[in-house]
Amino acid sequence: MKDSFKLFSMALCACAFAACSDDNGDGGDVGPGDKSAIQYVVMSGTADGTANYLQLTSDPTKGTIDPTNKNGRMSFDASNPDFVNYNNEILIGMNYPSKGGTAGPSQAWKLVDGQLVEHGSRLQLDGDVKARCFFNDYLLGLSDQATDNDHTSRVKFIKVSDFSSVTTNGVLDCDDSSKEPASQMTSQYGNEAWGVGDMAQYGDYVLLAYTTKHTVQDNNYQRAKASYGTDLDKNFYLGVYKFDPTDADKEYLKFQNMIIRKSEDHVGQEAGQIKGNSRSRTETGIEVVGDNIYLFCQGGKNFRSGNMEVPSAVLRISGSNIQSGKPVAIDNDYYVNLNDKTGNRYLWRCYYLGDNKFCLQLFTNPGQEGYNEGTHLTFGIFDVETTDYTPVTGMPAATDVVDIALACATDTSNGTVTFEVQTTAGANLYTINRNGQATKGTTVEAETIKGVSLLYQK
Questions:
Q1: Cα(65)–Cα(442) distance, integer angstroms
Q2: Which residue spans within 226-344 are E strands per DSSP?
Q3: How far apart are CA 423 and CA 291, in angstroms?
Q4: What backbone torsions phi and psi does residue 285 show, to the nearest 5 degrees?
């Protein structure tokens, strides 16, 4: 599973993205004096964005974290941070200048003697990172680029074990209609370009979930525009690649084959695309469980009609559809319409909890999805083996929720996922288990929430 990647955002950039403790003493109501080899990392900040804090607690079910207490607190400086977690062992904080953020260095941390210490060097990513995954001990990232009539995706990678250098000069051509995958993305209105919604390792291969992009006239140029829907939104596209970090021609991701599932060939069992970063870097969708690959397709709207085309659905690749370790086709005997299971709610993200169970984060309003249509404040537990669905109980009412931070902490050993939730009454950690029960935990006395992560000392 992508446990090694769940997430999903998680650790922090300390002091100009340098991990500097305000004070090494014992402080805060929970955490700083606890040298446990298992720690939850709680992130918070000031309302004006001038200060951000990182604090530890070994027990997310109790106590209070006070970011104003300098003892044991770590500061970090990043106006637009984004975080990933490698195998609950190394936290990586990425900083880049999109959405008005400043271009500071990115950094990594790990636990030593129950406390965070800096791992490796501070690296410049040279722009943002959208879809990403881990391949063995490499962090791979893609960044959409559009110049004149050309649409590409930059390939970037870092060897996590040493975190000493970053490569940012790889390129994928995303609109060459003379060859796959773009040659297979043609509607009645013409060719479309593509981006990547999610990516994941499967054995010796990297899987890319394509999101199609319509092209529009922009002065003298045809530009591919990211949107919630295109004319091909009701089809599913998956690319299979080999990763070679030493390629002399900078073709670090080498195309192998493509898997296509068109909804018109599966009437009554329609499935669309894995939206990924067009859903605010959801970084979920391609989910590997044992030898099987599950595909959580969010569904979406047709660009021209503005209407919903397909439901959120789950597909699978397994058995004979994986040949010599390479995925080649989608199973015909597995299909789940998630809207039928969840009361017509569309999927936003999913988190693997172990034992074939996923926690689903859903758009709150039935029949609606996207930034303008609704928020994603509803949760449920879905078993990919039995296809049973259980609504989560114990979370705050959607009307009381101000924000749920993007960074969350998954623990497959204990079957839980922990979120930092801001309500009208304040901020707390909430932990959801495989049985669908949410438990309110640690109080976080913060002006703004940044999320929570989990680290094991190794």
A1: 7
A2: 235-243, 253-262, 286-289, 292-297, 300-301, 308-310, 313-317, 322-323, 326-327, 336-337
A3: 40
A4: 145, -50
Q: Residue 32 in 3-state DSSP?
A: coil
Spatial CA neighbour of 197 closest among 214, 183, 213: 213
Cβ count within 10 A of residue 58: 15
CA dist., res. 171 & res. 159, Å (int): 18
CA distance 238 to 208: 6
Residue at token pair 């599932």: 261
What is the spatial distance between Cα 9 and Cα 243, in angstroms, rounded to a whole number?
23
| Residue 399, φ and ψ in degrees, nearest 5 | -70, -20
CB 452 within 8 Å of CB 418: yes
User: Which ranges of 349-422 does DSSP label H, i.e. alpha helix?
Assistant: none
pLDDT tens digits for range 196-251:
999 999 999 999 999 888 776 555 555 555 555 677 889 999 999 999 999 999 99
Q: Are 272 and 210 in contact (CB under 8 A)?
A: no
